[in-house]
Structure prediction request, 130 residues.
Amino acid sequence: MKILHSHTDSITMAVSGIQDYVYIEKLISIADILDTSKLEPNHILYFQENCQKLGKLKMVDSIVQFIGLKGTCYLLLFCNDLKICKASGIPRQGKKKLLIHKKYLKTLDKENKKVANINCIKLVNDEFWM
Prediction:
């Protein structure tokens, strides 16, 4: 298991290299603290009992790519082309245009990497300014 992202109230982990039956048994033993309602309905761990309950750990499957820029700025890409983009501090009107997969990847590109000390981030003409 590897921790991909953690923040005040969330943690994103990648699980690989564990034999399926061992993994499933361990998850069944903690099913009372999991919200597995986002899994496919035919998945062995799919249950509706904890759907959207506070304090439950949300479990999702089929993450293809995780891009984490900082604690509150990340993108999850799923195999069904569903994308979850999060970024705090960005005005609502800029989120749809700025939070796209290509821009997250571009941020990680070595040629485009910039380091700066900043006091303020502004959204001007659909671009970030520091």
